């Protein structure tokens, strides 16, 4: 039987896209408390099923697939630009294809405005009407209003008219940044992209006997299985070491490892890899918000995914990409690197940020270990001894040195210099992930 939380999520999923949702309505429809309904709506928002807009409320939106994640709904645009919805609220769930800045003559502008667009324009009432008639939503900058007839047209066509107090350049930059952030999210491989689904996962139930483990082991050659109850909620993990010299009639719940580490489908593969390496885990159960099993990921699949990520070209550039791309080997040296500090790498004081310094330390450690035929690493511990300010347009020299090197662990000393003056020093303890 589904839990109250699951009932609400199921109810929301079956609502029409664009339909308005309220805590009171859901609580009344399902005879539940408003607190339970509120928590479920927040979970639905995290899952991308609904969007909450100030002065409008919560509406059901179409859940975007990962390949379409860089597209934004008009509801998201309202939140990005701190906007006010003047009309066309029923169309807030729709996705825009692109935005057009109306900084041109009316005739020239209309050549670019088509259905599914967002026209960003000031208080040009005629342009607002023409854009709606062409199937485009409108974002009015400068905090201006529009004609009442245009608002009525927006309501008829279900095309939002949004007003923002920001100027045209600012809102265009804000929307562009949001799309860019979505591109970066799209490139991040999540557990849901590589998991073995529940339908293909071999599981044991708490009431099963150990003999069942032996049957699965003979059938699949696997030695580790998640243990679930009747509602497929994860109760434990069982491996070969747990059943050694155990009577075959013993129930699984007597020998399993309880309270196993789990991850959600939205956990990044990099985080899963860190957990598996840190905890020495070969198989991770993947669960939903109710701790119900949705699948598993193996250490081998995680490492393959990480290797694939490194071979893919990046579309959205992160701060780490910027730092790593500008870190080069000093000509004529071995194991010495340098990096020029750009404005993106600075803090509000105009000096290099501590995050950039730790990125340089980690990357230098990775590079020096690769020269010794070692693969990627997970940082277990980093101790930074001191940091001194380095301003923009300066060049930092990074010198890593391996202090200890084992089969699975390494200890690296990294020094950072600016104009032959030491500005940072760190000791890194790392574990190899392959």
UniProtKB/TrEMBL annotation:
Residue stretches in coiled coil: none
SMART domains to which the protein is assigned, alphabetical: CBS
Domain CBS: 256-314
SUPFAM superfamilies listed in its UniProt record: CBS-domain pair, HprK N-terminal domain-like, Thioesterase/thiol ester dehydrase-isomerase, Winged helix' DNA-binding domain
Keywords tagged on the record: CBS domain
Pfam families recorded: 4HBT (PF03061), CBS (PF00571), DRTGG (PF07085)
Protein name per the record: CBS domain-containing protein
